[in-house]
Amino acid sequence: MGRPVRDLLAGEPGSGETPPGRPPLPEGAVTVRHRDGHALTLRIAVCPLDGPGNETSGYVITAAPAGAREASTAGRAFEQSSLPISVFDAEHRFVRLNAAACEAMGGSEESLLGRSLLDAAGLSERTRSIDRTMRTVAETGRALRDESYGQAADDPDQHAWDVEMWPLRDTAGRVIGTALAGLDGSEQHRARRRLALIDEATTALGTTLDAVRTAEELVALLVPEFADFAAVDLLDWVLDAEAPPPREDPDIVMRRVAHASAGPDAPATVVPLGRTDAYPPYSPPARALREGRAVLARAGEDGFDRWMAEREPQSLRTPAARASRIHAELAVPLLARGTTLGVAIALRNLRPEKFAEDDAVLAEEIAGRAAVSVDNARRFARERATALTLQNSLLPKVRPGQAAVEIAHRYLPTASAAGIGGDWFDVIPLSGTRVALVVGDVVGHGIPSTATMGRLCTAVRTLADVDLPPEELLTHLDDLVTHLTADDRIDIPELGATCLYAVYDPVSRLLTVAAAGHPAPALLLPDGTCRLVPLNAGPPLGVGGMPFEATELKLPEGCVVAFYTDGLVAGRGRDIDHATEELCRALTVPRESLDALCDVVLKHVLPEEPGDDVALLLARTRALGAGQVAARDVAPDPEEVAAVRKWALDLLSAWGLDDISFVTELVVSELVTNAVRYGEPPIRLRLIRDRTLICEVTDASSTSPHLRRAHAFDEGGRGLLLVAQLTQRWGSRQADGGKTIWAEQALPRR
């Protein structure tokens, strides 16, 4: 009696008087000195006494053994709470912990009392964050919350803690300590992470229609957020656009297309990218493929240990490296639309927790989304390959050596997700050494557009064989497209096309062009200037009821005419006028050949990633000289035929073509005789010598001749049959002033 109360504290001899405003002893577990000298731990409770003026006049201190059970209801609620609750004094030392807090700290209350949080729990980012927040609470007197994620003592799993901290005050309102309660939100934390990973998967997977790229996106999503190592293996047929799915095969052989590792201490791949690997039946990937579900495997399981013994490098099989060995694997099949495409593998060795059932559900969800993207890429690649094959088979095989023009061309199918378009071009030889140059574009992409392109290409060749003028040919083609849109099987808004049809005559050097909604061609003159051909493009094909107009130009020899589809100059974000100017500038670049000029145009005009197919056709004009063409008028008199024959024979002799004079004499005789007998004046004969000998007879009648079978006693009807048998080809073409009958003969080999 009469001595300072603080002298009772063990380890604090001579502590003297209590500072003003402070309780004489700290509350909670306190170590005091027994009267015989040994230390004794008691549970202290300090209750202030109110004096005059609401000032504290003293304290009532009660003591009980440290291990004594709580007698009050509030004390029992504190002790039996499922939430870890701890009380700290003003020096941030433990003065009270309930059972849940002791379990979370991994020690008894006696071992923790009087120690700081950092001393008891160790230094980590999580404990430092809680300690900083607790000190802030003591300084500011405001309740705060701290969220942390880490590993608890003696627990291999990571935990998420939501810690609520508040100040403890005496009756005068002074802060005398802090208290904290922790809520283990690990399950909620993992659920949020799973949802966040699924949400990220919706935007991160399938950004391109490329199976390998999708596999790379999948492993990037899994590492390091979900696994320390991840890999994706696909069946070979998935990567081959033309290969069908294989039948059941007991040997599961996969090809590694993507893998990723969390760092230097994470597992390294044993299968290089692009290599194949066989999975034995007991391995987790083989089981996942066989069972069609996610397979969890852990260290200690026979199949897993056997599989790891075969796969792990020798460096990880030593006792020293055992801590970094793989201890968990998750294999998930890539299934889409009932088809197995491959398998995704996830491994853990850095993080201590094993894969759980929730992880398997999450992996199946993400792998399912990736599998759909891989299957979409596979289907796109297959449809693209089919459309490209179909288009290549339908595109004309332009042969070199045209009499009228020198040709160079390029066709670039788009690599965009829209698929192969319906761009096409053609070079069609016509009678009289003329040539038709055609460029067209069908609206849309994919196999339907390619098939429509093939139909239009065939129709143009058929109409060109009739030798219609360009504007009339487009009118017939417009009717064809209108009839196609009337077919219920074709979606009308999706069907539409543009087309440009031009005819060049090397004799007259006339270029006649008509277009249906198609860009005008560019013309490069021999002097190096380049401009667009002034053209009335007219409506696209399928609009119906609108006329088409033709433009005629007389060109000097050596002009280059560039025909192209709108994919060369049009596109999202592109200025067509600027792109057309770039085209004209590119055409003026000197090059040795038209092929080289094609490459220059594509390099200077096309963007890096064209969004549409591109067809480019360059034609350099030629001209036939006066020594290659001869013509004369024919009087409408049967006796004139003999003079015409002699004129033709003399001309052949001058050209050095006596070897074919017999056949030519017969052809000239038959054609001129038919014109005199059945045609109308004026009649004109023209012979053209180029790569073949062409005989043309023109008259003012519009009646076209035709072959017929002559009977045994008929006196006529065999002339055209003889012409057809003796020449390479023959035909007729209509003109405004009548018709022309023509026949071509092969020249003798020199």
Write the layout of secondary structure elements.
Elements lengths: L27 E6 L5 E12 L5 E10 L7 H8 L4 E5 L4 E4 L1 H7 L3 H4 L4 H5 L3 H16 L3 E8 L6 E12 L5 E10 L1 H19 L6 H12 L6 E6 L1 H4 L12 E10 L14 E4 L4 H8 L3 E4 L3 H10 L16 E9 L2 E10 L8 H38 L10 E8 L8 E9 L5 E11 L1 H19 L4 H16 L11 E9 L4 E7 L5 E3 L5 E3 L17 E5 L5 E5 L11 H12 L6 H12 L8 E8 L7 E6 L5 H16 L5 H18 L4 E7 L2 E8 L19 H8 L2 E7 L2 E9 L4
Antiparallel strand pairs: 1-2, 2-3, 4-5, 4-8, 6-7, 7-8, 9-10, 9-14, 10-11, 12-13, 13-14, 15-24, 16-17, 17-18, 18-19, 19-22, 20-21, 20-23, 23-24, 25-26, 26-27, 27-29, 28-29
Helix pairs in contact: 6-11, 7-11, 11-12, 12-13, 14-15, 16-17, 17-18
Structural account:
- The protein is α+β, with helices and mostly antiparallel strands and 750 residues long.
- The protein contains 18 helices and 29 strands.
- It has a six-stranded antiparallel β-sheet with strand order 11-10-9-14-13-12, sandwiched between helices.
- Helix 16 (640-655) packs antiparallel against helix 17 (661-678).
- The N and C termini lie far apart (142 Å).
- The model is unreliable at 314-323, 490-494 and 710-715 (pLDDT under 50).
Oligomer: single chain
What is the CA-CA span between the terminal residues?
142 Å
Low-confidence stretches: 314-323, 490-494, 710-715
The mean pLDDT is 82
